[in-house]
Design a protein that fits this description.
Keywords: Signal
Order of helices and strands: HEHEEHEEEHHEHEEEEEHEHHE
Distance between the termini: 33 Å
Number of helices: 9
Strand order of the largest sheet: 9-10-8-11-12
Signal peptide: 1-21
Protein name: TIGR03790 family protein
Structural class: alpha/beta
């Protein structure tokens, strides 16, 4: 069956959104704090209070000097330390810092969840390995090593981090006002490979969501954004937009996940503009759509009530080089 037919079918299915597995809760989330970074400590405490995460779920580590990238040798004991302190009820991990965000060519979120894969780093532009979480409502059971989805909560600005957390919490009080999912098929053909899988224009009436699939480089002035996905090195006019609580936004490009770099637009810009979660590549992935959030899969799982961290992890087929960032528990469509 052609994938375009599947996309159309999936949009029809969204009108009758069915629940998947029980969504993630605060009791199942571990919060990892870097005691060497004051912002991490402060935001970790703020987040735990805001989300009522049990104190026993907090893990303390020490990562000195705020490195952007760790070696495999540096990361191995850190991963062992984090996973070794988690109870059997934990299903996801939130690391409360901006950097480190990479382990050699891997994102730190994929390296923590799936383990470090030296073969991937030797062949960054080759196809990746299939994620067991991709479009899967029955994720793998904990094993050895445990596979727990993970995300970064950035801490470069205390005020921005607090605002991000507030948006995630506010998403729980989202009452299906008019919202729109925007998908921009841009003039940058190399970065528009996933446009083939954008859901078609339409309305998901049970969720009061309008889908707009556009041939455009710029979205300007929109005030009702729940999802915004595009493909460009840098995305302009973000300051003119309004993102609703729980909004997801990302751009397909080579270095969005280089969070503190300036070669291309950092995925942090989405969070600063008002999105609640995002995704970006930390090393050159080439333009495989499988290494980025697949739009219909992401939309489907988010509308079914998944949290931001669950929907994003389920939407990326080959996530080794991509970092997940934001407030993980945001779930505007959970009922």
């Amino acid at each position: 069956m052609r994938y375009s037919v599947i996309v159309l079918f999936c949009l029809t299915c969204l009108a009758h959104v069915a629940a998947g597995a029980a969504p993630l809760t605060a009791n199942q989330l571990a919060v990892v704090v870097n005691d060497e970074e004051p912002n991490s400590v402060a935001i970790g405490a703020w987040y735990r209070e805001a989300r009522q995460v049990p104190e026993k779920n907090v893990v303390h580590v020490r990562i000195p000097r705020h490195p952007r990238r760790l070696s495999a040798e540096e990361f191995a004991p850190l991963r062992k330390q984090i996973l070794g302190q988690l109870g059997p009820e934990i299903r996801a991990v939130l690391m409360v810092w901006t950097a480190p965000y990479a382990v050699e060519c891997h994102s730190i979120t994929s390296a923590l969840t799936l383990g470090y894969d030296a073969d991937q780093c030797g062949m960054g532009c080759n196809p990746g390995k299939q994620s067991p979480f991709f479009d899967n409502d029955n994720p793998p059971a904990s094993g050895d090593p445990r596979m727990l989805i993970s995300m970064l909560l950035p801490t470069e600005s205390l005020e921005q981090a607090k605002a991000l957390i507030a948006r995630g919490v506010a998403a729980h009080y989202f009452s299906f006002p008019a919202a729109t999912a925007y998908y921009l098929n841009t003039s940058d053909r190399a970065r528009s490979t996933r446009a083939l899988y954008f859901p078609p224009n339409g309305r998901v009436t049970t969720r009061e969501l309008t889908i707009k699939n556009m041939n455009a480089d710029v979205l300007e002035g929109a005030q009702d954004i729940m999802i915004y996905q595009t493909g460009l090195q840098r995305v302009s006019k973000l300051e003119t937009l309004k993102f609703l609580p729980g909004a997801l936004a990302d751009h397909l490009t080579s270095a969005g996940g280089d969070l503190l770099g300036n070669f291309q637009m950092s995925s942090l810009r989405w969070l600063e503009a008002g999105a609640t979660a995002s995704y970006g590549a930390v090393s050159e992935p080439c333009n495989y759509w499988q290494k980025f959030p697949q739009s219909t899969v992401l939309l489907k799982h988010y509308l079914r009530g998944d949290t931001a961290i669950e929907a994003y992890w389920k939407s990326v087929a080959w996530p080794a080089q991509g970092v997940f960032i934001g407030e993980p528990l945001a779930a505007p469509y959970r009922r």
